[in-house]
From TrEMBL, chains A, B, C, D:
Gene3D superfamilies reported in the protein's UniProt record: Aspartate Aminotransferase, domain 1 (3.90.1150.10), Type I PLP-dependent aspartate aminotransferase-like (Major domain) (3.40.640.10)
This protein's record includes keyword Hydrolase: no
Keywords per UniProt: Lyase, Pyridoxal phosphate
InterPro entries: ArAA_b-elim_lyase/Thr_aldolase, PyrdxlP-dep_Trfase, PyrdxlP-dep_Trfase_major, PyrdxlP-dep_Trfase_small
Lineage: Bacteria, Pseudomonadati, Pseudomonadota, Alphaproteobacteria, Rhodobacterales
Family: Belongs to the threonine aldolase family.
Ranges of residues in domain Aromatic amino acid beta-eliminating lyase/threonine aldolase: 3-280
One MF term in the entry's GO annotations: lyase activity
Cofactor(s) demanded: pyridoxal 5'-phosphate
Protein name per UniProt: Low specificity L-threonine aldolase
Pfam families assigned: Beta_elim_lyase
Keyword Lyase: yes
GO biological process: amino acid metabolic process
Family matches, as PANTHER family: L-THREONINE ALDOLASE-RELATED (PTHR48097), LOW SPECIFICITY L-THREONINE ALDOLASE (PTHR48097:SF5)
C-alpha cells in the first residue's frame, strides 16, 4: 500500500518495450534521429499545434526551469502560487536557470484567482528600474495540493497575463490527470486557453523520465535548445527519451494511465467518506485527507505508506496525509486502505 | 558502417534487462532506493575508495559541469586543454554552472604537458584581485583527440596542481576505454594518481545515459547534491539510472565493452596502415586519420559514416576523418571499411 | 520643502573639502593608498573590532548584495522582512550577486519578530535537497518603514539565527540615524548583539556615495574583495571614497548629521500631532504619516515634495506620505511644513 | 616620477569645482535631475548621435561588463584580443554580468587583424547547439599594450562583425587619448566606423570615476538601465557623476587633458631614443619600453615608479617597463626620467 508519490511506481511495460525496440543499430544522436523527429510531430498533432516548438527533457525540474528561463529575463519576476513546486521544491533551480530572476508569490492558496494575480502584477512594476520587472505567470495543473483549475479559470488567468503582455507557463507534471479529470483536450487546456508554454509531463504517469516542453510560439525554439544544452539536458542517446514518449502517445496511453490513476483516487475518496476530512477537492490523483489519529495509526500498522503533510507522525492529534495514486496502484491496495481506515 | 560517435550505437542488452528487472513495484525516489544505494557502494568498491562520495547523473555535460561547479568558485578559472570538451562542446555549460567562472586554455594540444600546465598556472594569479583566480585542473582521459594520458603523466599533472593547492578533475567520458588501454585499475587512474574528482562515463560505452561522479574527498558531497538538484539533474525515478550502472558493473561489463571497442579500433588502425596517415596515437577507440581523397570518396560511396574533422567533405584534398568504434561496432564493418579503403 | 528622500540632499561641505585635500599627487590605486588604509583602521576603531575586514563601496545596492553573496550560497535563501529593501528595491541585485539565491519573506511587517523568524527558518529546510537551504538573516536598521529595532530585539533575532547556525547581515543604510536614536555604539548595534556583517551607510547621511561593509569575522575578506572586483565595484581612484569616509568619521560627523536629521523628524512628528496619523513609530529620520486630503492638498500647493506611499495622489481620500528628513533639511522647512499642515 | 598608471594621478581641479557647484540643494536622485539630463544630451551632441542611449557609471569594469551583458546572451561568446582588459583584469566580471558567457581570444596580439577575427568567428559556431554561439566583438582603443587602431582598421573589424551580424563594443578606457592621437572625432571613432556601443572613459583622464556608455541603437536602453541597477551601479546621488562628466565636456577638457598626456608620452619616447627599445608603437599615453638593466637600476634609484611588465625586477637582464603618462604628469618628471635614463 504505497501512496507516497507518483514517482514511486514503475514505468508502464509498454514503455520498456518501446525502449527495447529503439535499442537497435546506429542512429544520429541529440534528437536528430527519425524516431525523435516523429515523436515531436506526434506531440504537435496531439496539441493541434503544427507550428509549435517541441522538445523533450528528462526531469520536471529541467522542463519548468528551462521554459521559465526562456520566457523570463534575469531582472524579471515570475508570478506563481505560494505553494508552487517551482518555488518550494526545486532548490532554486528556476532562479539558477533564469540567471538570478525572482518569484513573486501571489497571495492565496494553490489555486490562483484572477483578482489576486492581477493585484500581484499591479503591485510589481510600480517602482520603475528599482523593482523586479514583471515576468511570466506560472500555473500548475493539477496543483501541488491536488486541485484542478477549470478551463475557464485558466482562460481568466491568461487573460490577466495578456492584459499586462506577460506570457503564461503551465507546469503540467500531472497534465494527463488534469486533462482526464476535465475531459479536456491538450489544446483546450493550453493554447486555446491562452497558455504560451506547456510542460506535458510523463514521469509521474508511467514513463521513466520524460517531459515534453511545448512552445506554441516557435520563435523561442533555438534559445530553448541552447539553454537545454548548456543546462546539460540534451541527451546524446536521445532515442531513449523519444521511445518513452512514443509509447506514451501510442493509443493514448497517457490518457489511459491517468484515467486509471484518477479512478483509484476516486475510489479512495468515496471509501474515506465519513472517515477522513478532505483538505482538497480531488478530481485528479492526489488526495489531502485529515485522518483521525486512530485511523492513521491503524493504516501505519497495516503497512500503508504516505506522507504526513501536516501534523505529527507520532503525536496524538489528527494528521493530514497526502495520498497519491498512480496508474500502477492496485485497486486492491485502495480497497484495503479504505477497509483499514473504516475499521479504525 | 557507422563510425560517427560512440553515442550513435545502442545500449547493451543487459542494460535494458537490468532496467526491466528494476521496473517492479514501488520504491523510494531520488536515489533513496536500495538499488541506488547498492550501486553507489559498488562504485566505491570498484574505485577502492570506501569513503568516496558517489552520485549518478544522466549526461556528461551535467557530470563535468556539476563537478567543476562544486570545485570552482565563480571568480576562479579552470585549467584545461584548448580542445577540452568542456571548452568546445558544452555551449558554456561549465561557465553557467560555475556561476560565471572561466576556462584557461593551457597552450599545446589535447595532451597537456606538466610544463605547459605549470606555466599557465603561474601566469594566472599574478594580478591579485584583478585576474581570474586559480581554480581546478581538468584532464580528459581519453582525450578529445583520441590520445591517452599514461598514468605517469596524470601523476605529473596532479603534482603540478598540488604544488598550487588546486584540485584535479578527470573528464572520463571514455574512462573505460582508457583503463583498458592502460590496463589500469580505476583507482590507479584516479585517486592513486592524485585526481580529486572523476567522472566514470557509461553513456559512450553501452549505457543509455548514466555517468558516475566520484569525489574522493566526501566533504563536497552535500554541495554536489544540492547543485545537482538545482541543475535539474536529480531524477525522481532514480532506479533506472542505478539499474543501468548496476548492469555496467556486473561482471565488469564496462571493461568488456571497452575492450571490444578498443579492439575494433586496433583492427582499423592495423588495416589502414599504409593507406591513411594517423593524426593521433590511438590506443582507445577513437582514430583521427588523414584519408586521401580517393579513399574518402570510396568510403562514402560504400556507405561509411564518420565526421570529417578537417578538410572539405566535397573538395579534392585529403580529409581528416574522426573514426569512433564502440562495443557494438561489428567486426565485419571494420573489415569492410578497411577493405574499401585499401581498394581505393 | 523637500522630504522625498535622504538621497535628494547635498553632501556635507566637509566631505567635499576632504576630497579636495585628497586630490593631490600620485597615489596607489584600488585602495592601496595610505588614506584608504587609515580609513579602514578608523572604522575598525569605531566598531571596536580590531580584526574586522572592512571595505568601502559606492552604493548601498553593492554593499548589501556583495555582503549577502559572500555569506550565502546560490542554493540557499536569505530570511528578511516582506518590505526589505533587498527584496523590493534592487531589481534582483541580491539574487544576481548570489548567483540565483533566493529571499524568504518572514511573515509580518517591517520589524521582524523572533517568533516569526524562527517559524520561517523552521519551515525552510524541511525538504532536504529539494528546498532552498537556510541562509543568512538580513535585518534593516532603521527599517524601510522608519521603525527601529531595539538592541534587545536585534540580540533576539541574532539568537534565533545562531540557533540554526546562520549568519546575520545588517542593512545599515540609515545606520547612523539608528545609532543616534538608540544612543548605541556601533559595536553595540552590531557584533555585540550578534551581527556578523554590517553595512555602515554614508550616502543617505551626508556623503556623495560611500558605504562601508564590515565583516566581523575577517575570514571572508578575500572572497568579498574578489566579489567586489568582479561586480565592478573596486574603484581605481579609491582615495575619493576613502576621503569621504574619512570626513564622515572626523569628529563623529556621521553622528552629528544623523542627530540633526533625527531632530528635524522629531520636530515634524511633534508638529503634526493631531493633524496626521502616524503609521510608524518614528525615532529616526523617516515618518509615514496619514494626511487628510485637505492637508495633503495644502502641502502640495505650498510646494512640499514627498512620496505618496499609499493612496491616490489626486483622489479624495487621505494619503499616507513618506516624509524623510536629512541633515540638510532646514528647520524652517519643517516649521513651514507643519504650519501649512496645521492650517489646512 | 610616477608612471605606474593613469589612475594614480589626481582629478582635474575643474572636476572638483563642478562637483562643488552641484553640491547645492535638493534634487531628484538616480539620474533624474536636470544636470544629469543635460550631461546625457551633451554626450549625444559630442558623438553626433541625437538618438543614442547614454548612461554613466563609475567604473570601467561596470561600463564594459554591463555593455557586454546587454549585447551578449549567456550562451554566446565575445571575440576579443588575448590581452583584452575584459579577459585579463576583471576577475571574471564580464562572465558574471553575462550570466556565464564566454570570451574567445582572437589569436594574435593586442591589435586584432580582420583576418584573424574572421577566422575566429568562423571557427566558432560550427558546432551547432554544442558550441558557444557567436556574440559581440570587443575592441580596446587604445589597446592594453598602448597601440592604436587606425580608423580604417576599426572599420574593417566592424565590417567583419557585420558580415556575421554581430555587434561591436569599444572599450574606451583611453578613448580620449586615442581620439587625440588619431585626430578623430568621437563619431568617427565609433558609430561612423561601425561601432554599436562605446565606452567613453573619464576615470583615467582626469575624473574621479565616471565612464559613459553610449548605445548608438537606443533600443537597448531600458535593458541596460535594469542591468545597471541590479549590478548596483545606479547611483542615488547621481549628480556627482554628472558633474564630473559635465566638467569633462566643458571646453573639451577631455581632449585637452589627453593632449597633455600624449605629449608627455611623446616627449618620453623621443628622450628614450637610443636608450630603450620600444615594444609598442606609442601614439597615446602608454609606452612599453625595454630598459637595459643599468637604466632600470638608475631609474629605480632615482625614485621612478612604473610597472615591470616583463622580466625580473631584481635580476640582471633588461626589463620591459610600462610607462604611463597622464594629464597631471609634470613635464619635469618626464625630463628627469629621460635624463636619468640617458645618463645610465
Amino acid at each position: 500500500m504505497n501512496f507516497t508519490s507518483d514517482n514511486a511506481g514503475p514505468a508502464h511495460p509498454s514503455v520498456l518495450e518501446a525502449m527495447g525496440r529503439a535499442n537497435d543499430g546506429h542512429v544520429a544522436g541529440y534528437g536528430a534521429d527519425a524516431l525523435s523527429g516523429r515523436v515531436r510531430d506526434r506531440i504537435r498533432d496531439l496539441f493541434e499545434a503544427p507550428e509549435a516548438a517541441v522538445e523533450l527533457v528528462a526531469t520536471g525540474t529541467a522542463a519548468n526551469s528551462l521554459a521559465l528561463a526562456t520566457l523570463c529575463q534575469p531582472f524579471q519576476t515570475v508570478f506563481c502560487s505560494p505553494v508552487a513546486h517551482i518555488h518550494e521544491d526545486e532548490c532554486n533551480a528556476p532562479e539558477f536557470y533564469m540567471g538570478g530572476g525572482k518569484l513573486t508569490l501571489v497571495p492565496g492558496d494553490d489555486v490562483m484567482t484572477p483578482d489576486a494575480l492581477r493585484a500581484a502584477i499591479e503591485a510589481e512594476g510600480t517602482r520603475g528600474v528599482h523593482g523586479a520587472q514583471r515576468g511570466p505567470v506560472s500555473i500548475t495543473q493539477i496543483t501541488e495540493r491536488g486541485n484542478l483549475y477549470p478551463l475557464e479559470r485558466i482562460r481568466q488567468l491568461c487573460g490577466v497575463a495578456r492584459d499586462f503582455d506577460l506570457p503564461v507557463h503551465l507546469d503540467g507534471a500531472r497534465f494527463a490527470n488534469a486533462a482526464v479529470a476535465l475531459n479536456a483536450s491538450p489544446a483546450e487546456m493550453t493554447w486555446k486557453a491562452g497558455v504560451d508554454v506547456a510542460v506535458f509531463g510523463g514521469t509521474k504517469n508511467g514513463l521513466m523520465g520524460v517531459e515534453a516542453v511545448i512552445f506554441f510560439d516557435p520563435e523561442a525554439h533555438w534559445e530553448f535548445e541552447l539553454r537545454r544544452k548548456r543546462g546539460g539536458h540534451l541527451f546524446s542517446k536521445f532515442r531513449y527519451l523519444a521511445a518513452q514518449m512514443d509509447a506514451y502517445l501510442e493509443g493514448d496511453l497517457w490518457r489511459r494511465l491517468a484515467t486509471d490513476a484518477n479512478a483509484r483516487a476516486a475510489e479512495m475518496v468515496a471509501g474515506l467518506d465519513g472517515v477522513a476530512t478532505l483538505r482538497n477537492a480531488p478530481r485528479g490523483n492526489m488526495i489531502f485527507a485529515e485522518l483521525p489519529r486512530p485511523v492513521h495509526t491503524a493504516l501505519r500498522d497495516a503497512g500503508a505508506h504516505y506522507y504526513v503533510w501536516e501534523g505529527d507522525e507520532h503525536g496524538t492529534d489528527p494528521v493530514t496525509a497526502r495520498l497519491v495514486c498512480g496508474w500502477s496502484t492496485p485497486p486492491e491496495d485502495v480497497a484495503r486502505f479504505v477497509e483499514v481506515a473504516r475499521a479504525a
